[in-house]
Design goal:
CATH architecture: 3-Layer(aba) Sandwich
Strand order of the largest sheet: 8-7-6-9-10-12-11-13
Shape: globular
Radius of gyration: 18 Å
Strand content: 25-35%
Distance between the termini: 50 Å
Largest sheet: 8 strands, mixed
Order of helices and strands: EEEEEHEHEHEHEHHEHEEHE
Number of strands: 13
Helix content: 25-40%
CATH superfamily: Vaccinia Virus protein VP39
Number of helices: 8
Length: 260
């Protein structure tokens, strides 16, 4: 059963709650908690927010938008989307808003995170198939193909390596799970904080795919590299992000693209 307690006194309109689940074992050793403020609910960890849920809008003006919008770089709408790392479902919600007919699968290692995503973040309304597992295990076991894979999977335990950064074969193996003209996007978090990892991923993805794009938000840390054999160019993608079809998502106009 779920138990909840107020961990500290409210500061203004913001309340902080710590959650734990009695009936299921934890599957990671990261502490995490829920913060509430106004219309917004955040799933926090010791390294920052995992997810944000704002009932008044789908896109957040933050780094998650770069992940969701990366799928717009594909020339045709994806029919099968795979998300590595679910969190509270911020990106899953964006994918559902952009591609209402797509089948979306999300892989998340932490049972607690999945439970909170359904309980507090309205994940049930997104029609997402959720698999509790590590991305590495899912890759070995799955035989399905996807039009788009978004890798936001981070180490389940402190001290673990992130496969996207330290496994030279990671991108190639995921390419084998892509459909014709499929795309692979990876959240590198902050290119300026870790330029070595950024440069390494650019090299690996550049060897594996024909086209490489970078998408981010000015003033925000998150950088998403998107790779595929047929991706929209910067000018074409910018027209779509700022065009009439995206008028309900004005936050997308702030995104900036770079081609390699």
């Amino acid at each position: 059963m779920w138990t909840c307690g107020i961990a500290c006194a409210p500061e203004g309109s913001r309340q902080v709650f710590f959650w734990h689940l009695d009936m299921k074992p934890r599957t990671t050793d990261r502490p995490w908690w829920i913060e509430r403020g106004g219309h917004e609910i955040s799933m926090m960890t010791d390294v920052g927010p995992f997810s944000v849920y704002d009932v008044s809008r789908v896109f957040t003006g933050r780094g998650w938008d770069a992940q969701g919008a990366s799928l717009l770089l594909r020339r045709t709408a994806p029919r099968r989307i795979l998300l590595l790392g679910l969190g509270g479902g911020t990106v899953a919600r964006q994918c559902r808003a952009l591609f209402p007919e797509a089948a979306i699968c999300a892989v998340e290692v932490d049972a607690h995170v999945i439970e909170i995503a359904y309980r507090e973040f309205g994940l049930a309304s997104c029609d997402v198939h959720v698999v509790q597992d590590r991305a590495e295990n899912f890759l070995r076991a799955s035989r399905g193909r996807f039009d788009a894979v978004v890798d936001d999977a981070w180490p389940a335990e402190r001290g673990d390596f992130r496969s996207a950064w330290h496994d030279d074969d990671w991108a190639r193996r995921w390419r084998s799970r892509l459909s014709h003209n499929g795309m692979f996007a990876v959240n590198l978090y902050a290119r300026h904080k870790d330029p070595i990892a950024h440069g390494r991923m650019r090299t690996v993805l550049g060897r594996t795919f024909g086209h490489l794009r970078e998408i981010g938000i000015p003033g925000r840390l998150t950088t998403v590299l998107t790779a595929g054999d047929e991706l929209r160019g910067g000018h074409e993608a910018s027209r779509i992000l700022r065009g009439p079809t995206m008028r309900h998502f004005p936050e997308l106009s702030a995104l900036r693209l770079r081609s390699y």
